[in-house]
Amino acid sequence: MSMHLEVAKKAAKKAGILLLRQFGKKVVSYRKHGLAYVTDADFKSQTLIKRILKQATPSFNIISEEAEIEQHGSEYTWYIDPLDGTHNFIHNLPEFGISIALAYGNEIIAGVIYIPFQGRMYYAEKGKGAYLNGKKIHVSSRTSKQRYILMIELEQATRSSTTSLMRIMIPEKNRLRAFACATYSLANLASGNIDAYVTLKTHPWDVAAGMVLVQEAGGKFTTLRGKKGNVNDPGLIFSNGKVHERVLSLSRKAGL
To answer: What is the pTM of this model?
Structure first.
């Protein structure tokens, strides 16, 4: 592993310990916008992660969910989600995670997803495969002709579009699930537990690490229209590759 990936793993692990100490306790939360909230735990995790990354790579840019963008003119950029699944965390649900990714230009070259409650450290580097706690992982081999599992995000801002998509999806040979945590969904996709993940509205820090993780595990991702995707695309489809075209056609049928 590269030094950069090791640093990201260290930061994620320490942030996970911090979050577990806060989990189940009363947390102070603030409304950001609409129905979105942020907690003190988000900020504490973010501060810890940024401190570790800056010590190792002081010249790298940083884009983090709960902070202003830090531009240093570098070709390298860290993408950080210090607590993905904040609402789960607030309600004492264990489906939450930490996501840290490194980009060179517009390409994600390394990523870490840590699920603290389960002690699961997922990581990948471009061209070097995807791993869970040191063991190589791969996406599932299920096809759209089998009963596959599809994860979907239930965002307030896209409720109408999501409802349309679900109406199309329900008669299919799939089982719909929603974790309300992109990192948790993408980690499970990369390790073969689920077969596809659709998000109609996302942010770079939500999916950056998951992009390299899924690709290195043998999966793929595109925009909702089937074009090559990147961290700045608001809507994306991730899959094991074998169900991708079917999920894509259903998305088009739903008018997305």
So the answer is: 0.93
